[in-house]
Amino acid sequence: MANQALNPAGNNYTSIVAFDGACIIISVICICLRFYVRHWIVGRVGWDDWLLLAAVILFVISSAMDAASWLILEYIGFDNGGGLSYQVSAISQFPYLWVEVLVRAAYAVFYLRVVPAELDLKLHRRMILITFWLYAVYQGTNSFITLFQCGNPANLARQDAVCLSQSVRGILFDVSYAIDALVDWIMTIVPVYIVYKSVMNTRTKMSIYFILSLGCVAGILALAVIPVSKLGGVSVVNPLNLSVPIIADILATCETLVAILCLTLAALKPVVRQWLDDGTKLRSTAANDVRFVSESAMGESIRAGSYAV
Fold first, then answer.
1. Whole-model pTM?
2. Is 98 exposed, middle or buried (0-12, 13-18, 19+ CB in 10 A)?
3. pLDDT tens, N- to C-terminus, the chain (309 residues)
4. Domains, in order of start, for the chain
């Protein structure tokens, strides 16, 4: 039960702290499972795996800091801990934004592997590269603006500090979530179009469509954060009912977790096939047969000349 003296509005801080903890556990399980599949079954660890590992490390840091910011409010209260809570929350946005960049980088590497470099698909590859780098520049800039919005990050805890206005920060993050969705959809649609134009059987196409479409799921959640955050105003220093900001925080964290989950699911076909075969396949056979479905299907169908321009 919430302490009425420290939490007069009865905010449910336990829900967001528990959710952050669950996200940390799930993300660690995901990266361990992905590396197990890629190293021990496929026998090949790629750049997208290392990028996802870096993203998960930063995600764990960001989620832990986010949980700490809410715990400060729960056990210290607004009057004594509001400034410190906001400081921790604002600083946690720095690793969070770089998690977003690294996750999209992993997606980009995966999608570029889907679009063969040796075929006349330079325009498609450039679209993915340009989209990612524009996204990375914006998010990188946004991360430093957030960290230094009051000059020295130590000033974030001061009530009298001169900082970037909340309306400007809100716009920066609204744009951030909007381009999250846009980048996800662009980097998904380009490979999907190539698969659609290729001459391969419908079953293979549907399998590839499913894996590629996972990239859009996180983008949908990113868009959902914008209207929810507008309803309550995400500001932990405002001594009002924070139920809506807590929901917005959960959605924002969930958006990143879903992106990590989708990248993990894209790598699980080998382990699923191994389980179905009761572990009877040799590792060498698995490595030859169960690489990413998009790589194997398109690598053999498209490179064999079955891509119809």
1. 0.81
2. buried
3. 456 666 656 778 889 999 999 999 999 999 999 898 888 877 788 888 999 999 999 999 999 999 999 999 888 877 777 788 888 988 999 999 999 999 999 988 887 876 666 566 777 788 888 989 999 999 999 999 999 988 888 888 777 778 888 788 888 888 888 888 888 888 778 777 777 777 667 777 787 777 777 767 777 777 877 787 776 554 444 445 677 788 888 988 988 998 898 888 877 766 656 555 544 444 444 344 334 444 444 444 444 444 443
4. 13-300 (1.20.1070)
Measuring CA to CA, which residue among 104, 249, 110, 258 is closest to residue 182?
104
Find tokens 């859009």 and name the residue.
216
Instruction: Identify residue 206 by its one-letter amino acid code.
Output: M
CA gyration radius, the chain: 22
Which residues, other chains included, contact 215 with Cβ-Cβ below 8 Å and sequence gap of 6+?
Answer: 107, 111, 184, 185, 187, 188, 259, 262
